[in-house]
Amino acid sequence: MSDKIKILSDGVLNGNHLAIAKSMTLIENEQDSYQELLDSLHRHTGNSYRIGITGPPGVGKSTITNQMAKILRRNNFSLGIVAVDPTSSFSGGAILGDRVRMNDLTLDNGVFIRSMATRGSSGGLARKANEVADILDAAGYNYIIYETVGVGQVELDIANAADTTIVMMVPEGGDIIQGMKSGLMEIGDIFVVNKADRPGAEQMQQDLVYALHLKKPSIPWNPEVILTIANRGKGVLDLWEQIQKHKQFLNDNDLLDQKRDKRLEFHIKALIRDEITKRFWNNKREKVLNDYFQSMKDKISPYKLVEHMLSELIKKIE
User: Fold this and answer.
1) 85 plus 4 within the same structural domain
2) pLDDT tens readout for residues 90-124
3) pLDDT tens for residues 234-261?
4) I need a surface site. Which of 112, 123, 136, 203 has the fewest CB within 10 A?
5) Residue 298 lies in a domain
6) Beta strands 111-117 and 79-85: pairing type?
7) Which of 192, 82, 64 is CA-nearest to residue 145?
8) What is the domain extent for residue 10?
């Protein structure tokens, strides 16, 4: 292990905020040795409980996250927040800095907030969000909250990343059947109807309960639908209690380890996919692709081209 990585690794394990921030930057930018850093910290991960909060834009995810943080701190739990924001077309960084939206948490040493840009990730979670969460895990944070960008219809990444997934909606959320089609109904462990002081909140709650009743669960867990007014803190304690019930359910039924193994499998496959892609595109193969556009695209289908380009690689793998 290099001296630089040893210093960063030791700093993370000691909970040093500067070392944590530098490590996250190393990961996000895929700088040299970032994998060495993650390798050194891997055996110290697996202790944090990860909560995912997802839903459409404007539903109040940041407000819920802020209120949840206050409850966690009152209970003497440390908290890491990975807030995934839209990517700026100018800088490539996060447009919405969650530190601005969570000003009252930034001076609390028991809370670490990291805003990340999606950088083109279609699943709602930044590609490196899991690895950033691993840094917080190794640093000893009791809970980690993922807050997703909420720009797409399907945010299935959150289900792979979190131990408990919270899906948020508002009374104006529209036809619940459309909500089911979006995929959000499939990933939620707990559902929240926020801004419940608006008309239609209780009807939305009833519709969700009915829709969930129709869905055949893969495990014997029945998601609750909770009404909240997050900006006043109403209903957030009920949400916290429901998270604890879900956590206990997973532990009692030996499902938490299974869920985390599945997450690790998903991550390993993603790493292999990324590494193969990175190594595949050398100058020789780039030339083959360019030649295809110059003289062969009207003669050879892209499927035949892919088969030709992969043939050598497939033989090696087999």
Assistant:
1) no
2) 444 444 444 455 666 767 889 999 988 765 554 44
3) 999 999 999 999 999 999 999 999 999 9
4) 203
5) yes
6) parallel
7) 82
8) 1-43
